[in-house]
Amino acid sequence: MATGINSPIGTLPVEMLHRIFDNLDAETILLSIRVVSRLFQAAASTYNRYSIDFQLISTSKFPLLCRLINPENVISLTLLNNYRTFNQTDLFISLTHLKQFTRLHSLTLDINESQLNFVLERINLNTLTSLSFNIGIYDNRWTDTTLNFLSSALSQTTFRRLELYIRPETKSRISWPVNCTIRNLTINNGIYMDDLCKIFQNSPYLNTLIMNEFPKMMNKNLSLRFRQLTSLTFKDFCIVIDELESFLLLTPSLIQLKLIGGRGMLDGKKWEELIQRNLPQLNKFEFYFTQSISTMLSSTDPELIISSFQTSFWIEHKKWFVTCEYHFENSKSIHLYSLPICKPFLYYIPISKKISSSTYPLIMNNDLSMMDNIKLLELDWNESLTDDIQEKQKIITNQPLFSNVTEININSQQVWPILSLQSLSIFIDISRIVQMKIYSMYFDEYDQNIWINIGNFMKQADNLSSFIIENNSHIYYSTPTMENIYSILPHHISSSTYPLIMNNDLSMMDNIKLLELDWTESLTDDIQEKQKIITNQPLFSNVIEININSQRVWPLLSLQSLSIFIDISRIVQIKIYSMYFDEYDQNIWINIGNFMKQADNLSSFIIENNSHIYYSNPTMENIYSILPRHVRYLEIPIDHLNKIPMIFERCENLSTIRFHCDNTYFSRKVINWFDNNTTNTTCHLDDKIVCIWLGKKKHHLLERFTNHSIEQRPFKLINQFFKK
């Protein structure tokens, strides 16, 4: 590490560096900047405003980040269970001490209810100002505990923001404290009107409400008024204007109103009367209304609709400007929206496929600020778009039409047009794109210009981190097409979705982190062929997770020969699925054991066991005998309670276990064992799988471990492998 930097930035005070860090993610600060110099190392160590977000951290670097970061310096934490962050919540729980996160201001959770309670039990709720949670999998045994934690957070005088994505019936049971200090509430699914009234009665400072849906069981005779509410958003509602007015009667103090969705919302005169009657303080009105139609409209119909928004109330008094578009191809629809466009997603329709009219005098003069809120742009890559681009190139020269777009979806249902993808710079700033998705029914495998076209576009997309080729099951891509896809994969992406085939250009495999293969004689032949040509580095050098499937007799070849594919020392997770384990063939277990001895960084070991597979007692003992001592996450079948303490002793660093049991009765016996022999352990039963977040062993269990010699243990191979 350098001691200093011959650059003006090396002379900046630490406080200024911390201001710069406020605009960077934790991975960049700790893994890229921290290592540059001692100055930056000191600045990273004393920086106390870290935000940890699973979506922004690569799986391979996640364990290192958990070790480097000081929990007391984290003010924002986001834990998610999705396809990009699979299993990372459990891994995070195993690698960190949640009680040490003593300065958290913001907590975002999108996890299972059992995990939710495990986290909330250990987090200091007193410091929270913002809480957002979505329960992925409910567990009724935890509902009361969930509600207690939520009530505790709401009772804090510093609490300001809450976002909920939970069942309406669960919301009904929330105990709202009197004089709750919450100011911002987001409800991402349904809520009963009575519950919403209860919230406002107990939340005198609640001034911002965001909802996806209109409240259920609306009572039109309510005398209550939500006078503290100044900002209201409905993101996806489907009621008519008269029903909406019954709700707006309750909100006379509104200053801002945002509406996306609705039915029959196209009458400007009716809106004018409603606002003058019920919302005298409203000064910002944003909306995007869409209405499907079955009959063909004339070119004058959008003009008729827009005329009701051209009164002095709209143009002179409020200065609210509106555009109406009639999309007349395929699914015919009318789109009426305020300017600037208020929603983050736009499906772009070329001028030749729509009729447009606007009250905004500068719309034809390309006032691009009207598009600033759009982050995701979707378009059809066809000749109509080509013509549209060529027309726009004549008049738009300074900046793209949608300058803040970071994600783009490109659909191609026909022959790929000749126009270069780089011409999309008329719409977007290509250097800002972080995700690109392509859906095509047709790729001409012999037209290399297509792939040069896409490849050149992605070279310009310096910030691209996610690349997706969407491939429905009924679409078949030929081998040349598949190879063309791999040839244009950008090196700098961290997430990708595309079909996989073997390819000897090793750099094309740099972004693959998870490798799955069938452990068969065919693979044995393939390995032997590749050993003749690949000698310097493994084919998939950055793989950190490997899934091994064996449906037949285990082949003779050593698992260590997989070094032709992977760097075994980098593996952090191994998953084995086998329909067949020969309990008397000790070579299988020696094979697996030797492989895992080479996997120094292994933290997760899984034997996947579907309920229809029965493993004999000798097979089970062989499984237990090869468990690596340094593993933190373990998922295996279990057949007897007396195996648990042995697993406990053998795997000294365990923090999370998933046991596959033969039946629910035995699953409950496993939970009882942990209740009796450990403290602060959390168990969750899902059918016949028991999920366990380990606490501490009780004293009598520790004594048993101390007095229990290795020779007394029932595992046949326990001395043969992993000797310290």
UniProtKB/TrEMBL annotation:
InterPro entries: F-box-like_dom_sf (IPR036047), F-box_dom (IPR001810). It comes from the Eukaryota. Residues 6-57 form the F-box domain. It holds the Pfam family F-box. This is F-box domain-containing protein. It comes from Adineta steineri.
